[in-house]
Amino acid sequence: MRQVLQQLRSLFIKTASTPNPSFLKFIPGKPVMQEGTLDIPGLRYASVSPLARSLFQIEGIQRVFYAKDYISVGKTEAADWMVLKPQVFAMIMDHYTSGGPLLTDTPPAEDTKVLPTDSEAVAVIKEIIEGRVRPFVQEDGGDIRYDGFDEATGTVTLEMRGSCAGCPSSSITLKNGIEKMLKHYVPEVKSVESVDFEAKT
Length: 201
Known about the structure:
The protein is α+β, with helices and mostly antiparallel strands and 201 residues long. The protein folds into two domains: 2-98, 2-Layer Sandwich (Ribosomal Protein S8, Chain: A, domain 1), CATH 3.30.1370.70; 110-200, Fe-S cluster assembly (FSCA) (GMP Synthetase, Chain A, domain 3, 2-Layer Sandwich). It contains six helices and eight strands, in the order αβββαββααββαβα. The protein has helices at residues 2-10, 50-56, 81-98, 120-139, 170-185, 197-200, and strands at residues 14-17, 23-27, 38-40, 61-66, 71-75, 142-150, 155-162, 191-194. The strands form two sheets. Strands 1-2-5-4-3 form a five-stranded antiparallel β-sheet, covered by helices on one side. Strands 6-7-8 form a three-stranded mixed β-sheet, covered by helices on one side. Residues 1-9 have low confidence and may be disordered.
């Protein structure tokens, strides 16, 4: 606890405007990148950075850029910095106090890896599952796997894993949470169904 308090006292995040009103620089007062820069232009590219994955979970964040001593965060035109700024502060603070790495060499999950042959609808579905759905499901001791999207019927099929498999509340999560989210972002989606992997094999 004492170490965490010391880290918090030594971390004073400042912000600075940029020529682009959709971007803000967050300056943690600590090194960000040891060398070079890294541009993460969307959720599908965020598997290399746990912090970027967290930032993309914030509604309205659409780009993350790391430099030597700052993190530049981009928002959608409709989003408001008054709402976003405290959330970004919290994510950056959590990252630095956790002591976790900024970058990892963990490859993206195979089921949500966006392929050149994927349609735009499938790419967005995979991004949402990887960046918004999977982290919350994993917090509850489970996981979720993208199985496919039938563009003719608009049906997304997902496999619930771990504690989510067979859980009575998983069907509620599937319909009230995941289905509503996917329908909102991907008009082509009409329904979300769960699939039993063992039944398929």
